[in-house]
Design brief:
By secondary structure, the chain is an alpha/beta fold. It has three domains: 274 residues, Response regulator (Rossmann fold, 3-Layer(aba) Sandwich); 36 residues, no CATH class; 150 residues, IlvD/EDD C-terminal domain-like (Glucose Oxidase, domain 1, 3-Layer(bba) Sandwich). It is globular, with a radius of gyration of 24 Å. Bound molecules: FE2/S2 (inorganic) cluster. The site of FE2/S2 (inorganic) cluster has 10 residues, from loops.
Length: 574
Amino acid sequence: MSEKDPKSLRSYRWYGPDDLRSFGHRSRAASMGCTQADYAGKPVIAIINTWGDINPCHSHLRERAEDVKRGVWQAGGFPVEMPAFTLGETFQKPTTMMYRNLLAMETEELLRSYPADGCVLMGGCDKTTPALMMGAISMNLPAIYVPAGPMLRGNWHGQILGSGSDVSKYWAERRAGNIDLRAWTEIEDGIARSAGTCMTMGTASTMTSLTEVLGFTLPGATSIPAVDANHPKMANRSGRRVVEMVWEDLKPRDILREASFNNAIAAVFGLGGSTNSVIHLLAVAGRAGIKITLEHFDQFSKKTPMLANIRPSGKYLMEDFYYAGGLPALLKAMSPHLDLTCLTITGKTLRENIASAEIYNSDVIRSLDSPVLTSGGLAILYGNLAPNGAVIKASAAEPRLLKHTGRAIVFDSFDELNARLDDPALDVDANSVLVLRNAGPKGAPGMPEWGNLQLPQKILKTGVRDMVRISDARMSGTSYGACVLHVSPESFVGGPLALLKEGDIIELDVPARQLNMHVNEDELARRRAAWRPNEGIYPRGYGKLFMEHIKQAHEGCDFDFLEGTEPIPEPEIH
Ligand code: FES
């Protein structure tokens, strides 16, 4: 595409021709106060903004879009803001994961059906990042990501509080009777002090960081706190850069290759990132026509050290990470584990992007000589309970539980779990294995973050704070504990978890990557023959579409009809 040829712009088909339809487009642009000088011959930049009053993590994105627009104008583009479905992790039920693919579809179709030449994607709260990326990769127009940025550190009585992680920690203390209502209310007021995403290395910061590693943000963009003055500057520069990208015709699938995803997987471990990143990276790669598997994660886990000393696996928070040099400094520190020749949206390689990065605090961003963890942050397990795989964040579990044998206590639903967990009659001890089923992609449905099952109150009162827990659910990236997640195939569709009975012996062996129930094959065959399929709960609507097309966890939970790179025709303009 040449800058001298505005007719080569995709948007020219809407605005340019001397015909009846273009007359309609131009006259309606005029009705909004736009003159032809605003848009004629200029790249139209769609700003896909997931701002919404119900999403506190994105509460600043409404004004931040104005900074993006300023950049687009400065570079000679025409900005058009397009509000999109906000996936607010805290408020949306049953889970935002149910709607990730819907936002991905919306993003793709907004870009396809309107006169966009390029786009700026604005998100950050957990599923918004993979959703926006999946849609933009499928549409394959020049795209840049503007991450919402993490919120400020939490504070309570001078103690630093981290999103999610400290909620779980202090809730356990409250249930154990060690924290009263007054202290709990003070924590409630101190843990979320500003706009922005969770400031631990939860799913939000993991996914925005991986998006930067994949090459879709300006260097260092993802580490900037949401309310830092450098954040609107980054938004402004992103708006300017995307206009250049349109003229350069630099598209997502020009940037992404298998090595980009290998870098992202390595970064999951360098960061001590969220288990949710496994599912999202599988899905994002699928949209680029690139096949990655659970084995990739296990291989990289075995050889990649964790250098970011950030909660829940480390000590600090995202604000500290930013002051310590942020993601570019981390990537430079772990560069022997990365392919730095990968292209990015700057038009430069990852190597060029991080060349000037420096570490300013060597306890927050460690060197390869003094990692937080040498390897093994996450493990992929197989066995007769998880033939297609399961995931455990080993770095977030008490080490004594990584090889463990115990008796299963089985809950068939989240409601049953809540009803029975604190029943004094529950026959549970600290060695028991808590199992939750029907919490997978189709089971809940939507695979909610129920996987870090709470411990029974009577166990908490003995001082125990971790037990082996198994489910086909996900877990918040801010959570911790010996939680085996994403068991596939899920119990709802008849996976082996559905065959487990209370009292069965379960053996977890993380070093050997095994998860098995000690039930012989004949007995399993009897139970399999007696199993009856479950009925879905959605007779119509999006839920029905979801149930018919969602794939399993080990495949990334995309809809089967959205994967791949088959070309889709441009819309006719009549
Ligand atoms: Fe939005 Fe954690 S709730 S990032």
